[in-house]
Design a protein that fits this description.
Three copies of one chain form a homotrimer. Chain A is α/β, with parallel strands linked by helices and about 350 residues long.
Chain lengths: ~350, ~350, ~350
């Protein structure tokens, strides 16, 4: 058997690649895969059978998905080009900025006054780092990330293209005095004087935005993983290792616990508290505190359009429908007093 | 008592900071705050009592939240660094562009042909201003804002990083002639020849996009406030002082009135009309005209997942359930004709 | 009649402009339009009548909307300024990049190692093209588009500002070994080693993101049209000529067929399959396979807020309400066995 030169799926891997089986749904692909080696659990290895004499080497392991992640990291490191320069000549770096050893600043990037970049920080092409930001060791900013002034980010973070951190939170007071003069509806901006603090090992997906606090800081805990196009409002606090899928929105001042999992396109209202270990299903609107761990859901069931129309027409009459059932129960009880009622 | 040097929350402010009480929910913090001064309403001042002999100066005011906004603006101005240069040497500014007094163009920015920037306009690092745009006095573009050609913006606006204004609206005609040749599904692009006009005192949040019109313009009224990651389709019109929270989408040609408040992640279909003073709850899909002021809501109630499953299973049967209730009412009326019916 | 110098709406066009009537809703504007010419269908021309002696020339055509698209394209081309330079001096282009004839690279753009740009490719101001990307003939990248390394795009594409293609998919394995040491909730990043392949004639709206695959590629078919702020997860496959309105999210590994139409703000879960010619209504969460063509919907009906509260309160009791109706049916059947039941 040849040496392993890469990693692939069971379906696509060739004889010089290693594949993995983590999801039992794909077990049937073991019979046809052309992979040179396959990572699989002791149970899967047993089920597949010794007699099968597979064309691949079996790598039996208690946590196949985790081993796959580690091996993929090993290959990914080999794919990362060596940094050939430190600061690209087209970048604009303030004289008062401090760049530690091994820092790389890409073309067309801007690094503001008083910025501190720890060892190994990589700033991608076209990034804008506002004044007095601080970034911890080995954090990677891909192209075109924007940090407003005073943002602090920990070690080993990954920020993807289009991320914006530290823009003003959405704070406006109704102009009650203008209203007294007859000018209705005007808003007065509340300057956002707080900052953003982001822990270690945080990954932030493309075009995600995290606003700065109004007075105190917006705080993202260690190990938090945010997918693309997420919107985190001002003064939100997110606990350690919480993960959010794409398109989630969290309104201002909400506190989310540790180890939560928030499904894609969920929307969480402001000034709420979510406990540790809460799971929110994708597409769910959360408009109340969630004090206990567990999974919560609010999805309107999908139907063929005509069926949806017929059933959705009843929703605005549900309260009346319930009253009609109550009336029926009362009538029936009056008509035949011996009949037990199902209502409780 | 020392002079006031900053502003903070009741919870965090120290003896040299001023805090405020606008939300009665936080009244209990008056007993423990370390703030040097507190802004509060006459009623709150009265309830707190004269005998309490607080450690803070009371600033009694009819509109505490508004006064807080004004004081925060005062402090924010002091935090804004003086512009040290006009046009950064790394910026690319077309010779035909007109820059009035006090205009600042940041590093790596691009200003196109025929652009007119009024006095006091600040263009952040990495912005791209398309040809023939016009921006009114004292408008601030934070880093990495993109304006396509011909966008017009009023005075005192604030545009946050990642904003894109004037991209093509989503307009395609089915290619009926290709379909006749047997090629199904092809789309023909409809060039978007209109523009975008934005009034005075408009704030636009990070990564929000506003498309240009197909033939006429997309129009955003004076004083409109848009949060992050909002999507405004082509030919939308938004009335004065309307505010939208994050992640809202408005499809093409919809007209939204003045002083509306649109909650986060609401989605408004195309070709609709919303009256002045309409409030839409967060997470609501609006697919019909709203002709009267008032609050409108469409949120599926959140439940623990198992409970959600049990109840959601009934939704596709609501029409049948209503018919079953009707049948029961008819049966009961036939069985005991004297019984009054609750159905109306 | 003067020559036609432009195109406009029936409402706004003047005597030197051509307008069109595609939507019968606007037929009444024929009586008042000041347009010099109007494109309309044979039926509309007939209904409008010969006697009407309109002030405009009638352009009778089987597909008025399509003809409008073609004419608008003709005018749009005349509005596009000639490219005056090839590579702007402020752009940073790697020596190993290959630029074919007629390629234009805008100011402050970055083009990486080994990139191949075919003839007529235009790269807007501030774009970042990662190493080894390949872009087909006549594709247009507006300002500030980001392509990560190795992205392949076909011919005649249009990518709008803020687009990010090829960022890491959202892949993390729970760190089961850390958990055994008592550290709960940690995630291990799964490097995203796949790429992104985009077909010909694809348009991608402002701030839309398309992630690279984990091992295999993310694939967007020919003729696909994506609106603004769409999020396409890793390893998604989208069939030819499918169109998606703004704010749609598609989670990882989902396969969407050809000629589908996905309404705005719809959210499609991961690992699903949608057939060809599926239509999903705006605001719909899709959490199951859709095997047949047709329209599917899941929208909670909008109500005035008080009415919504009353009816939404019944949703968490629907399962119980159904049981009460069953109990009533049983009671009534027992009381009057001859009565036919409506339940089936």
């Amino acid at each position: 058997m040849p040496a392993i030169a890469g990693i692939g799926t069971l379906e696509q891997a060739g004889s010089r690649e290693i594949a993995f089986l983590a999801n039992p749904q794909y077990a049937s692909q073991l019979a046809t895969t052309k992979a040179g080696a396959v990572i699989l659990s002791p149970r899967a290895a047993e089920q597949f059978g010794v007699d099968a004499a597979p064309g691949f080497a079996r790598v039996v392991c208690a946590h196949p998905y985790l081993l796959y992640a580690r091996i993929a990291q090993w290959f990914a490191e080999r794919l990362t080009p060596e940094a050939s320069t430190l600061v690209h000549p087209s970048a604009v770096v303030a004289e008062s900025a401090t760049l530690a050893q091994g820092v790389v600043v890409g073309p067309q990037a801007v690094v503001g006054e008083g910025v501190k970049l720890a060892r190994g920080v990589r700033v991608g092409a076209g990034c804008v780092i506002g004044d007095h930001c601080e970034i911890g060791p080995d954090t990677l900013l891909h192209a075109r990330v924007t940090l407003y002034h005073g943002v602090r980010i920990g070690a080993r973070g990954v920020l993807h293209a289009g991320v914006v951190i530290g823009a003003d939170g959405f704070g406006f007071a109704p102009d009650a005095m203008a209203a007294q003069r007859g000018v209705r509806g005007q808003w007065v901006k509340i300057p956002q004087l707080g900052g953003v603090r982001i822990g270690d090992d945080v990954e932030i997906g493309a075009n995600t935005t995290i606003d700065r606090g109004a007075l105190d800081d917006t705080v993202i805990g260690h190990g938090v993983k945010l997918d693309n196009q997420i919107m985190i409002g001002h003064n939100v606090q997110i606990g350690e290792h919480t993960a959010m899928a794409g398109c989630v929105g969290v309104a201002g001042s909400t506190r989310i616990g540790a180890r939560c999992i928030i499904g894609g396109a969920s929307m969480i209202s402001g000034h709420l508290t979510l406990a540790d270990d809460v799971v929110v299903s994708g597409g769910t609107v959360v408009a109340m505190n969630l004090d206990k761990p567990g999974q919560y859901t609010a999805i309107y069931p999908l139907l063929e359009h005509g069926e949806w129309q017929r059933n959705a027409a009843v929703v605005p009459q549900l309260s009346k429908l319930r009253r009609r059932v109550q009336a029926l129960e009362r009538s029936l009880a009056a008509a035949s007093p011996a009949t037990p009622s199902a209502a409780d």
